[in-house]
Structure formats: C-alpha cells, structure tokens
Amino acid sequence: MQTATAVQRKAARPRADALRNRERIVNAAREIFVEHGSDVPLDDIARRAGVGNATLYRNFPDRDALVREVVCSVMDRMAQAAEQALAETGDAFEALERLVHVAADERISALCPMVSSAFDQSHPDLKAARERTEGLVDEVMDRARTAGQLRPDVGVGDVMVAVAQLSRPPAGLGCLKVDRFVHRHLQLFLDGLRAPARSALPGAATTMEDLRQA
After folding, report:
1. pTM to 2 decimal places
2. Name one GO molecular function term (predicted).
C-alpha cells in the first residue's frame, strides 16, 4: 500500500521501467546514506543502483532532490506502519511498540542529520509527508495514553529522540555492527514509557516542533 503522498510524487512518471529505476536509486541512496552519510558522490549511488548517471540526474537534478525523496520515502513507510499498527492490533501500547521498532529498522537516526540539513524544509512533498507521519504517530500515542497504558508526560518528540539515540551511530559502517543491540535497548525504553510512571520526568513533554526549533 502507498500513501497518497507517495502516489502523488510518482504520478508524473507512469512508465514501469522508469518507476523501477527511480525506486532503485532511492533505495540505493538510503543504503549508502546510512553507511557513509549524505555527502557521498552521486555517481556512487548510481553505480550501486545499477543505473547510469544520466538516469539518476533525469530523476533527481541535484542532491537536495534525492535527499528529500529518501527522507519522504522513509516517512511514507513510517506512516504505513502506523496505519497498519492501528488497524491490526486492539492493544494500543502494542501498536506503539511495533511503530518504534519499525522506526529503528528504517534507520531514522541516519536520516535525522539530513532532515535538519539546508534543503528546502517547506517543500510540499516534505511538508505533506512530515505532517502525515507525525499525525499518525501522535494518534498511536494518544490511543495508548487514553487506554491508560502510556505515561502522560511524554510526547512524540521524546519518542523520536530516544529512537534516534538508541539506534546510533547515525552513519558509517559502524552502525551495521550494533543492530543486534538496538531492538533490545528499544524494548527497555518502551517498558519505561508504560503507565503508571515510576518517577516524574524533568521538564515538559517534547513535541516535534520543539525539536525543529532546538
């Protein structure tokens, strides 16, 4: 299933072979960004994707366009995971657990530096993907909070920061070596989110807007 945002971005490229090439480029870029950061030569991405440089530049005229599409594609999958969790489980906290583990598998820790980079934060594709994803994560957390399963003093920003930090390092080959620890540590964190809370947290619940303004 694809979100409306993903479909809109692909509406202008209906040919199946062109769509496959574009998806190969995005997948290759995501992998290599995780391994080496977002400053890798675009030629390296084309080589890993198995396409020519001309094909890459035809789809993505500059680095910003490619980085933006990678970030949007990850947020699209996060949104899909949130929708699926909400639809498939009657346990609100279980839905939150599933979403957090998906976020780690999507390696959002490696994407955080790119989200805060210099490219256009107001681009309509990025804005739509961000609003949809944040809204769905917020809905998952609201359900768990309403069910009395989630402590009331945490926000979406708290969860996203913890996922990013616990799945570090954000980029480089070392990030692949700590995968076996990530989900274990995330589960420890999730257990700490359960209500009733054992202690009071300092400060206020963190929102995504707090993170953007930090």
Report:
1. 0.78
2. transcription cis-regulatory region binding
